Amino acid sequence: MLLDLSKLSLICGTLLAGISASTVKTPPKSSQTESDTVVPNVMGGSFSNFVNVQSIAYYGLLGETDYRCTGTLIAPYVVITAAHCIYDTKATNSTGWSNVRIGVGSVQPLPKNTNSYTVSSIVIYPDFVYASPFKDDVALIYLNECVSPDIATPIDIEAPDMSESQYIAAGFGQVSQTDRSPSNVKEIIVSQGNQDICKMFFSDAEIGTKVICVAQTSGNGSCFGDSGGPLYSVDYENLFGVISSLVSIDGQQCNTGDTVAIYMLPSGYFSWIKKNVPCLGTSCDYKSICNVPSSSSSALNISIPTGSSDPSAPIYNTNNRVAIPCSGSSFQISFTADQTSDIYFIITNTNTISGPANITGIMGLDTGDWFIGDYYADNTDNLPSDQTDTVDLFIRFDTNGIYIGYDDEEIIYTLSDEFDMA
Fold it and tell me: Is 170 helix (H, G, I), strand (E, B) or coil?
């Protein structure tokens, strides 16, 4: 059974289906030493004016300030950052997502900035491997709610003109090699350079399309602390790059001329980003996007494991659960499925199937038996003779209850007075 989850949004909690765990690459440990590759932060430069960096985001962990990254708001509830930040903080699955906090709307780091947002899900570029020097070092973070435009605004993604001589790099974190405490956002004017070093790690085809390398100077540029930060156009209007890492050939890390700062170019991943984000930058319509928040993926394919077709023992794989955003009073999850087996699901207010408030359901595509909660509907008379076709299913929630059905036809529902998902 293959499900195509084209839109995800529902009541506050978690949706668990009878699915197989998605595979996640387990990369080898880097063969380079810590002095060869470091995650960057801005040294030198000047403190930023928030008017210029309204899309910048702070990536941190709940209750911690020792590790942080930077990101950029590219949609009302989507932040782009470096994928290795996600691995560094063990946030590659839903267990780790709950520890991540995103700060926006300020040049101050968390917790000084009170605009703190939780995370519903994170998607890492599928070809990323956690080994330095990082390639395809891009990830998308989905917040549990939209960021109001009076707090922060998303930025447009553009491809840089490689003939341009200057860009602006910005980030949170330490301002020297010895002081590792986070600081307010700093920025610095940078330019391309040390292309001979860049070509030691990236091909000519990658340079200028997927990556750009910026030269370091002693005491100025990127250094320890936070990857994922933006590389802006000089007018701050466009996002050109995402800070990934530093590569040094002499082991001197930041304070050397033999170091390059590596930036991923979001424009080189634009088709993947567009597939996973419903709108980008200044083109976003907040009214249509934020009333029904979407999930981490516009096309998440999941499969039903063996045994889920047994009504007495359905299999729910908690490793592939989907966190549901909480915003407003009406939500819907829509997806496409073939009709060769029933679909089992649980809606819960925890990350497990044993929470105090669970609602179970069955979409009887194969048997015709539909359940939600304690309610049953017999739909066998409407089973198609050819079950190779696909149907468009939905789970809809509003203040009156939860409704399930397919092809815009409601099959069964349970009223809101039958459950409590607070």
Answer: strand
